[in-house]
What we know:
Elements: H1 2-13, E1 19-26, H2 34-42, E2 49-53, E3 58-63, H3 70-77, E4 82-84, H4 98-102, E5 106-109, H5 117-120, E6 126-132, H6 137-152, E7 156-162, H7 169-176, E8 185-189, E9 195-200, H8 204-216
Parallel strand pairs: 5-7, 6-7
Antiparallel strand pairs: 1-3, 1-4, 2-3, 6-8, 8-9
Amino acid sequence: MKRLAAIFLFALAVPAFADTMTFTVVGIDCEGCSAPIVKALRAVPGVKSVKLDWKAGVATVDVPAGFDREQLHKALTNLGFEAVFPGETRKDLQPLPEAANQALDVQTDEEGKKLDLKTLLVPGKVTIVDFYANWCGPCSVLEMRIRNYMHTHEGFALRRVNVGKWDTPAAVQATREFRAEALPYVRIYDRNGKFVAAVTGGMWDQVLDGFTKAEAR
């Protein structure tokens, strides 16, 4: 009887992973995105296992009965992606509410002045220098992803610089000094102001990798 009672109590202590959830991951376009997505999903309380087919853009997780899938929505949104379950309509990544944006450490230079990194970089924070243009659609998408990421990750500062039509001092500096060839173009610096990575074209997996390396230093 004691042995049966022990088995019964053990069974009560172990959650019943009775449900398997499969959903589409919007925004994944390369294998490099797989690792941060899987890591974020595994970190969600209650998730036991994660499988991701990045080519098909489909993820599968095992969860307890009654699991709130909104946690999965939130985990991917915080990472710059979107989870769409069967029966749901794709919404795409949404801009943050104005109050949330106001709380972020973001500064924008619309005039495209030449950068002085000594005054631009923020001590104690990972600084993202984002060269953009108002006519550049991918620049807007990348900015929204960065802002959503910063909303849930402390210790980041975003400094945006408008290159205009490649005719500003910042544009000259970006192409000659930093070797930028296209937009979006971001440079990532660690908390001590040391250069970590440059990403051209808004490749989100590379940006996330840069964030991870900068935080680890």
